[in-house]
Amino acid sequence: MGHRDGGPINGDARSFSRLALVTATVVGLLLLVGTYVRASDAQLVFTDWPLMDGRLVPTLGGAATAMFLHRALAAIALLLVLWTAIRARTDTRGHPLLVRLSTAALVLFGVQIVVGAANVWTRLRPWAVVAHVAISVLIWATVVALATVASRLAAGRPRPEQDGAETPEGERPSLRDTVTAYYRLTKPRIVLLLLITTVPAMLLAAKGLPSLWLILATLVGGALAAGSANSINMYLDRDIDAIMRRTRQRPLPSHAIAPEHALRFGFVLGAIGFYFLAVVVNVLAAVLALSAIAFYVFVYTMWLKRTTAQNIVIGGAAGAVPALVGWAAVTGTLAWPAVVLFGIVFVWTPPHFWALAMRFSGDYAAAGVPMLPVVRGEAETRRQILLYSLVLFATTLLLVPVGHMGPVYTIAAVALGGSFVYRALQVWRTGDDVRTRRLFAFSILYLAGLFGAVGLDALL
Fold first, then answer.
1. Which of 80, 118, 170, 252 is most buried, with most CB under 10 Å away?
2. CATH code of the domain containing 427
């Protein structure tokens, strides 16, 4: 299985080489279409970047078709470059040259998006046009170099044993087992918890009951986005999941799904979720959902989780975004009540997760993950749980004046918050494992009850 230390390729080198070649091909095609767009003076056929006449799919014909094809190819190329960068860090054991080239291509692509927008915003100022062309050539050269290096490395080594879904000869997983494995890949219980915070935010934003179709569409898009983030997270964490007792039976450590298939599945879910939300709900909701995926994958999973004890504190922001998505789905904007709802989930996450992490601190230590109980000890973790519980209580009360909440929410916030703080205080004083487990279980009921009170208060 791939790791992040340097060294020779230890994944499917030929598979990575093919991916790099496909990426280079799509980027080359994007360069050709972009050249045609410039030659036909179609750069300003749409002036409301990133939309096209206020839509993701405009009325096609003539120059509009060329520009739409250019932007669609750009989106596909970005996904491929992103996928290549992730696999270069995992399936190739962090081979230095592959990591540098793939990272450079991803950074250049990000800069190119900004420069492409500047071409529209500045009405084709010469510096923007020149920069756009120059960066296009740099991206093309970088991905070609990446494909060349990957091809040479693959050709110079025998095909290694595939890191994936392996079953004894003659045995194949049933369709039911495969579907179940992909379903588990999305972490459905976590998805459900995230959706619990979405609907009450929609009710509060609408000051009543919004369209049931809007609620359903937002939940579907949000579930796809959350499932995407969780699937990619499982792909990236498959090495530590194989070490920890709590996660050994997940689809990748148990070889129910090949890692590459899990990554592909996550990308597809994310793309469908973003497009669905953008078309059926609104672009702001789609962008917020996409930002949650990016934050969970790149900031939490790839950076914070393995480097700092504050990983879950900062990383909890990804799980708080659904409240913003729900609000944006109704209003098309954001407001202070939505920010407070975001803050409630953000502050709730550390005490909720630390109560679980204390139970499995030995697993995290064995996997080298610097969770707070491992780095600072259980006594400090219990103290932090109490402190965050107090901050959580205060944050929930802040919603009363900001969101103009009524007695239903106010009574629920005081009762539930007081119970949460009391349980955290018991954990801090006694250090009892049973009380810690009970706090974790109660924290889930707490969040559901509190947001249920938000929705009920809005309806009444």
1. 252
2. 1.10.600
pLDDT digit string, tens, across residues 128-148: 888 888 888 888 888 888 887
Domain that includes residue 121, residue range: 13-155
The answer on 244 and 131 residing in a single domain is no
Structure tokens of 317?
A: 């922001």
Could you tell me if 264 and 400 lie in one domain? yes
* pLDDT bucket at 12, cuts 50 / 70 / 90: low
Total number of domains in the chain:
2
Phi and psi dihedrals of 58, rounded to 5? -80, 175
In a domain, residue 443? The reply is: yes
Distance of CA 426 to the CA centre of its chain: 35
Under 8 Å between Cβ of 325 and 197: no
Tell me: the pLDDT tens digits for 280-326?
898 899 889 989 998 998 889 888 998 999 999 998 899 999 999 99
What is the per-residue pLDDT for 13? 72
pTM: 0.76
Contact 72, 79 (CB under 8 A): no
The one-letter amino acid at 150: A
DSSP string, 296-323: IIIIIIIIITTT-TTHHHHHHHHHHHHH
Q: Which residues are within 8 A (CB) of 14 and not within 5 positions of it... i.e. 6 or more apart?
A: 154, 159
How much is the pLDDT for 210? 92
Domain contains 5: no
Q: Which long-range contacts (CB under 8 A, 24 or more apart) does 54-63 make?
A: 56/275, 56/278, 56/279, 56/283, 57/279
143 lies in the same domain as 251: no
